[in-house]
């Protein structure tokens, strides 16, 4: 079976699923606006319940005021390495929808749908020769204020996008963790017929 990045698939899959991983060592080189928009184009085509497309993305390119603002909303542990990204993205989901009668109702799949869009972005990023690293470590209240997020939106995560740099560019503790991770065996999370508790 396919083996890439010291990751071995037990069943035949496309190599992109093993190739994609979340590094922290980034070169900090510039990313063009068009190049970045092409990554969001992939997210655009993600499926969503009733085709509501509840995902929202706020991006900033390195070297801009927006980049500094966005970086400041990340937890310190993430700022340490994400500061070298070429672009930072905050991913939001629209938590409510307006019905045909004008009623504002919770959109139950906003997070699920936005997760699909994030992963389309992540795979396209990998295909384009960049890497994407998601971060839940973000100060959501700070991000809402700093990025002027309107009500009925949830900050889901942030993402650092960059070109892979040598692990030697990282502080010692992060350098040790700089490798593609492994996964549980499929038998632990795929069940036939009914749920099987551990
Ligand atoms: C929603 C989400 C939140 C994450 N939050 C963080 C984070 O705050 N900081 C970090 O360094 N990595 C974060 N990660 C990266 C995960 O640790 C990583 O995806 C996981 O260990 C699997 O490794 P891989 O992406 O290299 O395959 C996050 C990933 C996801 C999908």
TrEMBL record:
User: Could you tell me what this protein is called?
Assistant: Nitroreductase family protein
- Gene Ontology MF annotations: oxidoreductase activity
Q: Which InterPro entries match?
A: Nitroreductase, Nitroreductase-like
- Would the keyword Transmembrane turn up in this protein's UniProt record? no
The biased composition feature labelled Basic and acidic residues covers 172-181
The UniProt similarity line reads: Belongs to the nitroreductase family.
- Which residue stretches belong to region Disordered? 169-198
Source organism superkingdom: Bacteria
Task: Supply the source organism's classification.
Answer: Bacteria, Pseudomonadati, Pseudomonadota, Alphaproteobacteria, Hyphomicrobiales
Q: Which UniProt keywords apply?
A: Oxidoreductase
Q: Tell me any Pfam family this protein matches.
A: Nitroreductase
Residue ranges of domain Nitroreductase in the record:
19-163
């Amino acid at each position: 079976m396919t083996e890439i990045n010291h990751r071995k698939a037990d069943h035949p899959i496309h190599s992109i699923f093993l190739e994609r991983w979340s590094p922290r060592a980034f070169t900090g080189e510039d990313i063009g606006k068009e190049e970045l928009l092409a990554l969001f184009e992939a997210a655009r085509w993600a499926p969503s319940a009733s085709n509501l497309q509840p995902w929202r993305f706020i991006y900033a390119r390195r070297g801009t005021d927006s980049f500094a603002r966005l970086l400041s909303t990340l937890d310190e542990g993430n700022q340490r390495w994400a500061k070298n990204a070429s672009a930072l993205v905050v991913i939001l989901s629209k938590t409510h929808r307006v019905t045909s009668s004008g009623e504002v109702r919770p959109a139950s799949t906003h997070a699920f749908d936005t997760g699909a869009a994030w992963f389309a972005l992540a795979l396209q990023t990998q295909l384009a020769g960049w890497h994407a690293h998601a971060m839940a470590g973000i100060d959501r209240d700070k991000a809402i204020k700093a990025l002027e997020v309107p009500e009925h939106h949830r900050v889901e995560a942030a993402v650092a996008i960059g070109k892979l740099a040598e692990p030697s560019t990282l502080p010692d503790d992060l350098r040790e963790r700089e490798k593609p991770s492994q996964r549980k065996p499929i038998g632990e999370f795929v069940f036939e017929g009914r749920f099987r508790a551990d």
